[in-house]
């Protein structure tokens, strides 16, 4: 199953220039003849699997409830006013991955996951704010969306795990039909409520905080024994006339500069950024070969199988690190030359599986063979029914 934007409805370049992170937009029939990649029953089944993040949100007589999965029985919530939300469905149900492909006009490292929700009439999670941008595609059924302007809104918690806001005025008030899509930038208040039973597909985007990135820097520096320079007093920074318990403005400024000096190593920062963005916050499902694949046996190993499959949740990106084009997978790095770059780019553009016959001509150089060998032995790519 493939999904493509109707270019007459959605132009990616115009969208990035005029709308992205600026204003919400509604796109009618952006997916012509839209077919749901998953059914409500299949979604409920995924929500039962271990390690899957799912929630059941219900509202009966303005009494909000939130229950974390796995959820086996829906009889208690009745026939209306509830929603089942399942995160990262693309990582648990391969056909859903295809719905992310049209959004690759935004960098891969920016896309987080595909959240899918099934809602009964009146179902929703209330008016709220998100700290990330989101595209919401309407599958089966109809859903009403209201979106307001950015502002300061009072937050209330009708349930300890459910933050809602009060008092926004809707600038957009629409009903979406199958194949329609709404884009809501971070910080815009919005509320969605199902009119009929419906499926919605939310493409969420990764937006790490400064604290998360600084934490990644600290973890990397500690692990690699970097940023090990110790504090030293500058000339005349100590004053015997000052109380011993007082941290002076001059001393504070010296500490600020000491911290900033650790952020001036661009090579270190580039490495930390690339490592962080090549990792999935949800650990990918790696599958290792039963026996380590050797360099001499690589071609023979691949000739035994029809396809290679990509590990569920795997992130692959490239970046220039210290002047060298580098492929990164789960914070592991491979310097790329012309041949290994072609192999890496072929794999990064393969969302699910690739024919081994397609790969074999790309393995003529030693660097490409070493890259393929490492990806197999790390469990990042694997063959089905591995009994070789």
Keywords:
388 residues; alpha+beta; Jelly Rolls; Malonyl-Coenzyme A Acyl Carrier Protein, domain 2; 25% strand; ribosomal protein
Describe this entry's structure for a reader.
One of its GO terms (molecular function) is metal ion binding. It comes from Aliidiomarina maris. InterPro entries: JmjC_dom, NO66-like. This protein is an alpha+beta fold and 388 residues long. It has 2 domains: 12-205, Cupin (Jelly Rolls), CATH 2.60.120; 298-383, Malonyl-Coenzyme A Acyl Carrier Protein, domain 2 (3-Layer(aba) Sandwich), CATH 3.40.366.30. The chain is built from 9 helices and 19 strands. A hairpin with a 2-residue loop joins β8 and β9. The two termini are 31 Å apart.
Quick structural summary:
The chain is of the alpha+beta class. Helix content is 23%, strand content 25%.
Write the topology of this structure.
Elements: H1 12-18, E1 25-27, H2 40-47, E2 54-60, E3 63-68, E4 82-86, E5 111-119, E6 134-138, E7 143-147, E8 155-159, E9 162-165, E10 172-176, E11 181-184, E12 190-194, E13 198-205, H3 210-224, H4 249-261, H5 266-277, H6 298-303, E14 307-310, E15 316-321, E16 324-329, E17 332-335, H7 338-348, E18 353-355, H8 356-359, H9 366-377, E19 381-383
Antiparallel strand pairs: 1-11, 2-3, 2-4, 4-5, 5-13, 6-11, 6-13, 7-10, 7-12, 8-9, 14-18, 14-19, 15-16, 16-17
Helix pairs in contact: 3-5, 7-9
């Amino acid at each position: 199953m493939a999904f493509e934007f109707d270019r007459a409805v959605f132009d990616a370049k115009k969208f990035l220039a005029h709308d992205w992170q600026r204003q919400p937009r509604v796109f009618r029939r952006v997916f012509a003849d839209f077919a749901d990649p998953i059914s409500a029953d299949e979604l409920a089944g995924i929500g039962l699997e271990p390690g899957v993040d799912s929630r059941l949100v219900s509202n009966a007589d303005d009494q909000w409830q939130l229950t974390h999965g796995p959820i086996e029985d829906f009889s208690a919530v009745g026939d209306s006013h509830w929603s089942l939300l399942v995160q990262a469905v693309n990582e648990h149900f391969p056909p859903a991955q295809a719905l992310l492909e049209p959004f690759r006009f935004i960098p891969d490292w920016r896309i987080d996951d595909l959240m899918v929700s099934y809602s009964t009439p009146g179902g929703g999670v209330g008016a709220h704010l998100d700290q990330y941008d989101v595209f919401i595609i309407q599958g089966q059924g109809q859903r009403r969306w209201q979106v307001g302007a950015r502002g300061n809104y009072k937050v209330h918690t009708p349930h300890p795990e459910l933050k809602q806001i009060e008092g926004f005025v809707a600038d957009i008030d629409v009903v979406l039909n199958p194949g329609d899509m709404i884009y809501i930038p971070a910080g815009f208040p919005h509320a969605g409520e199902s009119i009929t039973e419906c499926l919605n597909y939310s493409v969420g985007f990764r937006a790490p905080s400064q604290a998360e990135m600084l934490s990644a820097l600290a973890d990397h520096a500690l692990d690699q024994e970097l940023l090990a320079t110790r504090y030293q007093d500058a000339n005349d920074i100590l004053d015997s006339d000052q109380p011993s318990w007082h941290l002076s403005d001059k001393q504070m400024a010296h500490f600020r500069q000491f911290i900033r000096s650790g952020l001036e190593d661009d090579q270190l920062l580039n490495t930390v950024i690339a490592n962080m963005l090549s990792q999935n916050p949800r650990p990918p499902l790696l599958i290792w070969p039963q026996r380590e694949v050797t360099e001499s046996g690589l071609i023979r190993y691949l000739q035994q199988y029809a396809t290679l499959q990509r590990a569920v949740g795997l992130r692959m990106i490239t970046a220039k690190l210290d002047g060298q084009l580098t492929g990164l997978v789960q914070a592991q790095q491979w310097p790329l030359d012309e041949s290994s770059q072609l192999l890496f780019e072929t794999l990064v553009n393969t969302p699910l599986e690739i024919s081994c016959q397609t790969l074999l001509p790309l393995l003529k150089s030693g660097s490409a063979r070493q890259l393929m060998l490492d990806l197999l032995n790390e469990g990042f790519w694997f063959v089905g029914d591995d009994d070789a």
